[in-house]
Amino acid sequence: MLLKVLIALVFLAMLASLAAGAGFLLRDEAASRRLLVSLKLRVALAATLLGLLFYGFYAGGLAG
After folding, report:
1. Does 64 reside within a domain?
2. What pLDDT does residue 17 have?
3. CB under 8 Å to 57, separation ≥6 — which residues?
4. Domain span at residue 30?
5. If we measure between CA atoms, which residue out of 62, 64, 60 comes closest to residue 7?
6. Which of 5, 13, 16, 56 could make an SS bond with 62 (beta carbons 3.0 to 4.6 A apart)?
7. What is the mean pLDDT of residues 1-13?
């Protein structure tokens, strides 16, 4: 159960980072680095999500 909650939280954090990145893209100037930081965070969250999913299927917590 804890694994499913962690997966949901990471996914929601990815969506929040995506929304923040879109806002930075529309509002910030060209010299702003906030969009790049948002992208880095989103990539790290995606890698974490994949790791949690692989672990969940490997350990049997998500199968069935």
Report:
1. no
2. 95
3. 63
4. 2-59
5. 62
6. 56
7. 95
